[in-house]
């Protein structure tokens, strides 16, 4: 599988609600970033799905290079221009 498209070089701040489901875009092609819109079809990528464990601000990865998907781990700070 190739590298994902970098949607943006910063995380997305999301106001999560405990128990709310999400489908995070792992390919970087979705126009509904950071969430999946099905743009990955025909690629090896699939969305990361789950439920938020608690309410509050969560930082979802925008660069798609995180080692802690779907959450930001600071990988965007290492990207070259």
Automatic annotation (TrEMBL):
GO terms for molecular function, please? 2 iron, 2 sulfur cluster binding; metal ion binding
**UniProt entry keywords in alphabetical sequence:** 2Fe-2S, Iron, Iron-sulfur, Metal-binding
* GO CC list: cytoplasm
Say yes or no: keyword Iron-sulfur present.
yes
* Domain of life where this protein originates: Bacteria
Q: Which Pfam families match?
A: zf-CDGSH
Q: Which SMART domains match?
A: ZnF_CDGSH
Q: Which InterPro entries would you find in this protein's record?
A: CISD, FeS-contain_CDGSH-typ, MitoNEET_CISD
Q: Which PANTHER family match?
A: CDGSH IRON SULFUR DOMAIN PROTEIN HOMOLOG, CDGSH IRON-SULFUR DOMAIN-CONTAINING PROTEIN 3, MITOCHONDRIAL
- Protein's UniProt name: CDGSH iron-sulfur domain-containing protein
Organism equals Caldithrix abyssi
The root-end lineage is:
Bacteria, Pseudomonadati, Calditrichota, Calditrichia, Calditrichales
């Amino acid at each position: 599988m190739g590298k994902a498209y970098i949607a943006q070089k910063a995380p997305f701040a999301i106001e999560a609600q405990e128990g709310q489901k999400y489908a995070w875009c792992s390919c970087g092609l979705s126009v509904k970033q950071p969430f999946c819109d099905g743009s990955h079809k025909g690629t090896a990528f699939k969305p990361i799905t789950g439920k938020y464990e608690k309410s509050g601000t969560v930082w979802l990865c925008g660069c798609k290079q995180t080692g802690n998907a779907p959450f930001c781990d600071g990988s965007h700070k290492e990207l070259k221009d």
